[in-house]
Write a structure and sequence with these properties.
This protein is 0% helix and 48% strand. The chain is mostly beta strands and 119 residues long.
Length: 119
């Protein structure tokens, strides 16, 4: 079955950068056929959309709160999706998840990776 494993989270200071990775396996079809999405959930809040990318990496979408600071990308040969996060803010603190599909239609989720930004 599909497995998604996120990594790269940690504790950093405001203004720093992190790059998250999501390693995928177990797809029935080619990985490039699947859009992928990053979302996040802060304590006491609902999970929210962060960014998505289409199968070929040619189309991306971002939440307004991260636009200009975060970049989603993918390497289909490695079956990996990335989230480069720059100029991090304390309000970016959350557990970050990757998932297959677009926001609202995701069918497979990873276990998440914790990102904590200190002020």
């Amino acid at each position: 079955q599909v497995q998604l494993v996120e990594s790269g989270g940690g504790l950093v200071q405001a203004g720093d950068s992190l790059r998250l990775s999501c390693a995928a396996s177990g797809f029935r079809f080619r990985f490039s056929w699947y859009s992928m999405t990053w979302s996040r959930q802060a304590p006491g809040k609902e999970r929210e959309f962060v960014a998505s990318i289409d199968g070929n990496g040619g189309s991306t979408n971002y939440a307004d709160s991260v636009k200009g600071r975060f970049t989603i990308s993918r390497d289909n040969n490695k079956k990996t999706v990335y989230l480069q996060m720059n100029s991090l803010k304390p309000e970016d603190t959350a557990v970050y998840y990757c998932a297959t599909g677009t926001w609202g239609s995701s069918s497979n989720w990873g276990q998440g990776t914790q990102v904590t930004i200190s002020s």
